[in-house]
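Quick entry, no commentary yet.
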Amino acid sequence: MGAPLPRDPIADARRNWELHGWGEVAAPMAAITAIMRTQQILMARIEDVLKPLGLTFSRYEMLALLSFARTGALPMSKASALLQVHPTSVTNAVDRLETAGYVERTRHPTDGRTTLIELTADGRALTEKATAALNAEVFGRSGFTSVDVEDLLRILSDFRRQAGDFA
């Protein structure tokens, strides 16, 4: 990240919204813009940790999901649903992880139509290394207080539920 700006551009945008007669939506615009900027900041921090390990966040998410599965394997369709991404995105991530030797595709033992994604030993080791680094360098230094975290989780969970993200 570059040098900090002398003023908050989102606060400036809110004032401009109000000056243009959009006061009733100025605060929600500022909140949504702040969420988007926060996401950019957090993704940059995550990428700084994962890039040296040869991972993107989406590939890390796939590895982490597989590491939590009882058998270390999941059907591709289930991985897509749990990660809330299009099947094409899962296929792309799995292709790259498979090429790197971190996952392998196998046939489901009882359903020949289903392809399983299985974590390899190298994939498990990389996931453990990446998780330890993320925990130390990003999640453990989030910049939020524990009260902030709980408030954010409640607010964002309520929003996601109302948006139909989950029941």
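second:
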Amino acid sequence: MINGVTMTINVDEYLMNALKEDITGEDVSTNAVMRSPKQGKVELICKEDGIICGLEVFQRVFQLLDDKIVFETELKDGDKVKNGQKMGTLYGDIRVLLSGERVALNYLQRMSGIATFTNSLAKELEGSKTKLLDTRKTTPNMRPFEKYAVTVGGGNNHRYNLSDGVMLKDNHIGAAGSITKAVAMAKEYAPFVRKIEVETENLDMVKEAVEAGADIIMLDNMDDETMKKAVAMIAGRAQTECSGNVTKDRLAAIKEIGVDYVSSGALTHSAPILDISLKNLVPIE
């Protein structure tokens, strides 16, 4: 849940920037048909089955335009919704309901789509120790919302940004000269509380990463047979993460291999939106 304090400190600026992008001067269409304040209501309708996510963000967009806006719903993030379901009702100044509609729906549709897609993959890993992770492959200026949506859908967050942990990828290793050198330099530089993850592409790299003392070893774009050998070679001396070419159809095999984590950029960069609309706007006295 995105609570009030978190919303105000971390989220409001993102929402305001989105509103400023959509309303640079005025909402010409709304001002043309609505010359003065008038109270109204509009219904939030789901147009396909899925997992709802972002209800507080949706509401907050309107309240940044007018703190008197009221959103009534019995749903909470993570609930299942059905095609045709009325999910709630917005009450307030019709001008605000019209002007905030697109931005609010953009967040709600995007977050709900990610939660729905994540949930479909997370179900494939049920009953195993393997946890589903997202990546930093997020839409610019949407990371807080997209990573939150992953957790609502039943996934887990990898590092939030570059400051969260050490991940030594191929180019870092190339810059250092070897995995051994890169890990040694990371241990010397980074605080001891930060884990060190190393990306590997073959069994020779896995062996070097283990001997260098990596905390987490990423098995990048390996086929299932190579990954099995890598997990056996590591033998619990480091945590394991499968990454690259992760599809829903492949998750059953990955689960059986017994890696600790499987990460998928698709959770955030390829999830379709969940179709949601504001409909049936009417004035009220």
